[in-house]
Amino acid sequence: MDGYANGFISFRGVGFRYSEDGPFITHALDLEIRRQEFFTLLGPSGCGKTTLLNLLAGYETPTEGEVCVSGKPVRGPGRDRIVIFQAPDSLYPWLTALENVDFPLRVAGLSKKERQVRALQVIELVGLHGHESKYPGQLSGGMKQRVQLARALVLEAPILLMDEPFGALDAQTRAVLQDELVQIQTRTQRTALFITHDISEAIFLADRVGVMSAGPQACIKEIIEVTLPRPRSRGSAAFGQLYDRVNQILSDEVRRVLRREDSLL
């Protein structure tokens, strides 16, 4: 039987480099993400986390191996995959929050009535009720990120790809949005790949946490099942034990990077 048969999303022996004579950023990388799973990805800076997201999004093509969704190779961007980035400036400043959420539906050719129903539903889902008529310049950073999330959810794509979407926010706002994202995931059951540098965030959100090895030629070093019941308490002993375990794995890889850099001096 195909070893990847149970993977909704599969990275199969994936290697990637930007030029023929350049170093491989990833090499022989294998990863499966299950349907409706929330998978978070950690790794040392520069190991290729965003590269994996770009490969799955279809923005880049593997040099070796393949990336598949439902067994079919990814050949480019598709409506089944939506990307949410950190930068809130991707919102259109001349459109209201509701109009920003409505915009992709307008491009898709939906009727005005259907657009309004779907846009208002996700506005409610992400906690923006009462702020529909505000422009991005009138919204806080957290609210802007909610609009971005709503704009992604409104298309009803089964796969969400998130590259540190809360990275620019203060700690309190991040915690609130993490709580809300867990609730949204519980209700919508999307398949999500979430990149972060924050171990606590990774554990709080994930069904499984993947830790990448240091590059070049990075791969998936270890995958940790997060069996903590929801809602999760960041202050619980079990959460702390899991944090320490993930931190040890990640710290080992960061030390590898530092040793290699020292050897080049």
Give a quick precis of the structure.
The protein has helices spanning 49-57, 97-107, 112-125, 141-153, 171-188, 199-205, 237-263; strands spanning 9-16, 26-33, 38-42, 64-69, 72-73, 81-84, 159-163, 191-195, 208-212, 220-225. Helices cover 37% and strands 20% of the residues.
The rough form would be described as globular
DSSP strand count:
10
Radius of gyration: 19 Å
Main-sheet strand order equals 6-7-8-3-9-10
The end-to-end distance, rounded to whole angstroms, is 49 Å
Separate helix tally: 7
**How much β-strand is present in the residues?**
15-25%
Give the H and E element order. Answer: EEEHEEEHHHEHEHEEH
Query: Biggest sheet, open or closed, and with what strands and sense?
Result: 6 strands, mixed
Runs in which pLDDT lies below 50 for 5 or more consecutive residues are: none
Q: Helix amount, in percent?
A: 25-40%
Class from helix and strand fractions: alpha/beta
Question: Mean of residue pLDDT?
Answer: 91
Secondary structure blueprint with pairings:
Blueprint (H helix, E strand, L loop, with lengths): L8 E8 L9 E8 L4 E5 L6 H9 L6 E6 L2 E2 L7 E4 L12 H11 L4 H14 L15 H13 L5 E5 L7 H18 L2 E5 L3 H7 L2 E5 L7 E6 L11 H27 L2
Parallel strand pairs: 3-8, 3-9, 6-7, 7-8
Antiparallel strand pairs: 1-2, 1-4, 4-5, 9-10
Helix pairs in contact: 2-3, 2-4, 3-4, 6-7
Task: Report what the structure shows.
It is a single chain. Helices cover 37% and strands 20% of the residues. It has helices spanning 49-57, 97-107, 112-125, 141-153, 171-188, 199-205, 237-263; strands at 9-16, 26-33, 38-42, 64-69, 72-73, 81-84, 159-163, 191-195, 208-212, 220-225. The strands form two sheets. Strands 6-7-8-3-9-10 form a six-stranded mixed beta sheet, with helices on both faces. Strands 2-1-4-5 form a four-stranded antiparallel beta sheet, with helices on one face. Strand 7 (159-163), helix 5 (171-188) and strand 8 (191-195) form a beta-alpha-beta unit. Helix 2 (97-107) packs parallel to helix 4 (141-153).
